[in-house]
Amino acid sequence: MPHSDDQTYAIPAPYRRMENLHILFWLLKDIGWCMVWKPLGISMIFPTLAIALVITWRTRGVMSELAHNLAIVFWISANSYWMLSEFLGFDTVRVWGSFTGKHLALIPFLTGLLILLYYYLVQKPRETEPKKVAA
After folding, report:
1. Which keywords accompany this UniProt record (predicted)?
2. pLDDT digit string (tens) for 55-72?
3. Which residues pair with 94 in a beta bridge?
4. What's the rounded Cα separation, in Å, for the pair 78 and 106?
């Protein structure tokens, strides 16, 4: 049984429906990528990313949710860029040293990772520190 000072994060039903729709769009995007169905994969980028941004905006008041949802936005961005690099044929084009067009997806991937690292190494410890009050 949770303590009275535990925080509970409840997802309202309309938000849950939006998250479920988000999963559907994400799967369709990745199926399009896997099957090289370019129109499907490319057309699912916008709704997948748009819903991820809406979810992120709606959860901005809860730091844990914000960090994880921002990481998802950057993950979808990286994933979509990588897919486009393959669909448009610049995935193997060298851009710098041995880095190719698809390697540029590392920028949003690493951005999402850095957000989570910041949350877990800096923000979360601050949230769990006992409040210091002057006696």
Report:
1. Membrane, Transmembrane, Transmembrane helix
2. 999 999 999 999 999 999
3. 100
4. 7
